[in-house]
């Protein structure tokens, strides 16, 4: 099982020795106390994240073939786009729910990285764009509650997510996928 990609010129970094696998009690409490504010209108917030991403890096918008040539200002009303935004928020929710045992979500994040690697035109630097835009939307949504401690906790969570998605992306590029998809039970965490 391999990925059919045209990304042979991408340099695949080794996974760093430092493993972000444990969240402190403070991080868990902070994330869980802010998550209800961020997820109370998950579709709207998820849509806002992607709208910001598309404005920040228009080349990412072209990767969403299902959106066709829809005007960016009208995307928030398009059901396929809303569905993708909701799935994105479900991934975050799954991590929030499993912070004491993050190994539960790791294979799913790796598999999502594999899926992103299989998207023709997806570049690993897009993960940085997602991270930046996500934090910007979180700041907008949380307002004065987005103090530096909250921001640092969310940065840690985002770093965790990106780390495992990049690992899946890299595995796809190097054809190391034998166990990735079988380790994931996508029915358990239905955000596919």
Percentage of residues in helical conformation: 55-70%
Order of helices and strands: HHHHHHH
Q: Termini distance? A: 19 Å
CATH class, anyone? Mainly Alpha
What is the helix tally? 7
Supply the helix-strand structural class.
Answer: mainly alpha
The CATH topology comes to Globin-like
Family: Belongs to the globin family.
Pfam families: Globin
Protein name: Globin
Keywords: Heme, Iron, Metal-binding, Muscle protein, Oxygen transport, Transport
Structural key phrases:
192 residues; mainly alpha; Globin-like; 56% helix; disordered C terminus; transport; oxygen binding; muscle protein; oxygen transport; heme binding
Give the arrangement of secondary structure elements.
Blueprint: H1 25-39, H2 42-56, H3 58-61, H4 79-97, H5 106-117, H6 126-142, H7 148-173
Task: Write a structural description.
The protein has 192 residues and is mainly α. Helices cover 56% and strands 0% of the residues. The protein has helices spanning 25-39, 42-56, 58-61, 79-97, 106-117, 126-142, 148-173. α1 runs antiparallel to α4 and α6 runs antiparallel to α7 (148-173). Mean pLDDT is 83; it is low at 4-18 and 179-192.
Short characterization:
This protein has 192 residues and is mostly helical. It has helices at residues 25-39, 42-56, 58-61, 79-97, 106-117, 126-142, 148-173.
